[in-house]
Structure formats: C-alpha cells, structure tokens
Design goal:
Distance between the termini: 84 Å
Number of helices: 4
Shape: elongated
Strand content: 25-35%
CATH architecture of the largest domain: Beta Barrel
Largest sheet: 5 strands, mixed, barrel
CATH class of the largest domain: Mainly Beta
Low-confidence stretches: 245-253
Length: about 250
C-alpha cells in the first residue's frame, strides 16, 4: 500500500504530502506578499499638496476678474485663485468686481507655492476698497513647452493625483464647471510649474481645451508673469500631441 496516497474523506493527509503542501502554500503566500510590496513601492509618491476640506478661514483682498478669478492680498505677489464648491467656478460671483475689495470665507487648497481658495457660497461681500490697476504683467517672451493640461482645482490639492489619463473625465467636468485650466511643465531646473492657460488674446479657455486634457502636448505660445502667477497664452488650434520623437526640451524661462 502507498502511504503517500491521500483519500479525500480521510481526516489527515499523509505526512510527506502534508509537508509538501505546506511548503507550496508558504511559498505562494511569500510570493504574493513580495509582488504586492513591489507594486506598492513602484507607485509614485503623492504630491505635497493639501485641501483643508471643511476648514474655513476669513480672507480679504482685491478681486482680479480676468482671465480667471483671483483674490490679491497684500502685495501683488500674494494671491489666490478662486473656485466654488464642487465642480463650480466663481465667475458669476465676481462679475463686475474687478479691482474692488472683498472679504470672503473659504477653504485653502495648496500645492507648493500655488494657492487656491474654495469660496463658501454667498460669503463674498464688498468692503468698499478699490484698486484701479491690475497686477503688473511682465512679458517673458515666446516659449515652446511639453506638458499636460489639468484642471487647477484638483491638481493643486483636491485630488491626489490630480493629473494623468485616470483623471481625465474629472478634469473635463471641473474645467467645464469653471475651474481654471492649467498647463503643467518643467522649467530648466526640472521643477514642475503650473501655468494658467489662456487664449493668445488672454481670454479664458474652457470647452476649447477638452480634446487635449490629460494628453502629452507640445504648446508654443507667449509666457507672461502676472503677480505670483505664470500665464501661458496660446491658441488651442495650435496645440500638438506629443509623439515623444524629436520633441523640444522644456524651456520655461
């Protein structure tokens, strides 16, 4: 009789077969743990961004209406992009407030030096302060850039990650609702920069950029610094998808 033969209704398997099965099970579990750990370690780390969801602070400053709503506080270099709750912008709320002082309640969204406020609906009130001129704009000249269009709200901290093809549908809906579209690209030092994206005439862009969101792109345009923000002026009709072949290097100045 073969003592290694196992019959299913017998309470215990033969010792030799049992040891063999245990080794196989331990090996499979160890391999599964190793594969899982490798997949986790291979993932890119989350960006150093934050969204103070449900935490509200009072802010005061002057409204810059174009190309996208901005609250300027203190010096011209201190400013916040403005968006509404959910997938909504605040263009209607700031219409006619160009250069006027306001106070509002909002949650902070922040990624690096780029900051945004999610304004509580109905909290914006005029203070009577007025500032006739807009922030000083500096023309930085023509540029050719490689990067990706994102919605600024998610990218700056509401979602993590807030870019790439997995985020495409969400980004399109956010831009459609009024979140400013942004172009992310690297400067000469390798640092990723967030550029507000407008038409070549400085107009706000929304539906025109939908076909290009989350795609690797090559964009030629004019780079402008406005206060603490960089603005890329370019026409969507001239956007080109990046094949990765003979593409120009990053060249933000």
């Amino acid at each position: 009789m073969n003592d290694d033969f196992y019959v299913g209704y017998v309470p215990r398997a033969p010792a030799v077969l049992g040891r063999r099965i245990k080794r196989i099970v331990v090996g499979l579990v160890a391999a599964s743990v190793a594969v899982g750990a490798a997949l986790v370690l291979d993932q890119a780390p989350f960006a150093a961004s934050k969204f103070e969801y449900g935490i509200y602070h009072d802010y005061a400053g002057v409204i810059e209406e174009w190309p996208y709503p901005i609250l300027r506080t203190g010096s011209s270099s201190s400013s916040f992009l403005l968006v509404g709750t959910g997938k909504c912008g605040v263009s209607d709320a700031v219409r006619g407030l160009q250069g006027k002082g306001v106070r509002l309640k909002a949650s902070l969204i922040e990624r690096g030096q780029d900051r945004m406020l999610e304004v509580v609906s109905g909290s914006m009130q005029e203070t009577g302060t007025e500032l006739a001129s807009s922030a000083l704009q500096t023309d930085l000249g023509p540029v050719r850039l490689r990067g990706e269009i994102v919605d600024s709200k998610c990218y700056l901290g509401v979602m993590n990650p807030g870019n790439g093809k997995v985020h495409r549908d969400c980004a399109v809906r956010c831009i459609s609702g009024g979140a400013p579209p942004a172009f992310i690209a690297r400067d000469a030092s390798g640092e990723t920069r967030v550029l507000l994206l407008t038409g070549s005439d400085g107009r706000a862009l929304h539906r025109e950029v939908f076909p290009f969101v989350a795609e690797p792109l090559l964009i030629a345009g004019e780079l402008v610094r406005s206060g603490s923000h960089l603005i890329l002026k370019a026409e969507p009709s001239r956007f080109r998808r990046d094949s990765g072949i003979n593409s120009p290097a990053w060249c933000i100045r």
